[in-house]
Design goal:
Elements (H helix, E strand, L loop, with lengths): L1 H14 L3 H17 L5 H17 L7 H32 L5 H4 L2 H22 L3 H14 L3 H26 L4 H34 L1
């Protein structure tokens, strides 16, 4: 696809910049992915693994594994923090503001049920949130809405980031110039993940309706 070629050319240009610029690029890439899911942050992170492998192969002492890991980790944390703050403010805005269709959109009882479910399953939800861009985006927002303890959130979120981004970096590092294969696997993984999620939602709806009818 054309956008993938453009992205790869852009990433190759990034490689030619100094270490500080590269560090901030990976930082903002991961931050952006948390606030704007369409951004291909995972692809960039995989490329980072390839970049580190190239640096070691050619004996360069510039941007290395610690630079990649720290920029990736801090970018994720800052991005999640922004969405938590957004979630808290957005809920207050919706509660106070009057706007068309508010009664249809804002149902206090249903929202409270969602919050209760989140509190009940928050550890698992946060741990698995980093494994899908779309999911992590909403998890951070809901975490802000329910007023979750930030220390607890970032403890489990950090574990999730280390596991997922560690896999991406290791994949890019191991495959070298074939790092694009990991990107293809990620695309397939996301399709399967969302297909299962959609199917689960449909089953849940049918079960709920059947229970009401019974």
């Amino acid at each position: 696809m054309e956008w993938q070629i453009q992205l790869e050319n852009f990433l190759l240009w990034i490689v030619e910049q100094n270490e500080v610029f590269i560090w901030f690029f990976f930082f903002f890439s991961n931050l952006l992915e948390n606030v704007f899911p369409p951004w291909p942050g995972d692809t960039v992170t995989v490329f980072g693994g390839f970049l580190v492998a190239q640096s070691l192969e050619f004996g360069k002492t510039g941007f290395g594994i610690m630079g990649l890991f720290s920029s990736t980790y801090l970018g994720n944390v800052c991005g999640a923090y922004l969405m938590i703050k957004f979630g808290a403010r957005f809920l207050k805005w919706v509660q106070k503001k009057e706007f068309p269709l508010k009664k249809e959109i804002y149902d206090e009882e249903k929202i409270q049920k969602t919050f209760d479910w989140f509190h009940k399953n928050e550890i698992l939800v946060i741990l698995f949130s980093r494994f899908s861009a779309g999911i992590r985006f909403f998890v951070a927002i809901i975490a802000g809405m329910v007023g979750i303890n930030l220390y607890k959130f970032f403890l489990y979120f950090s574990i999730s980031v280390i596991l997922w981004c560690g896999l991406l970096i290791q994949g890019g590092y191991s495959l070298g110039s074939n790092w694009g294969l990991i990107v293809e696997y990620i695309a397939l993984y996301n399709k399967v993940f969302f297909a299962i999620l959609a199917l689960s939602f449909v089953v849940f709806l049918f079960y709920t309706l059947w229970k009401k009818i019974s």
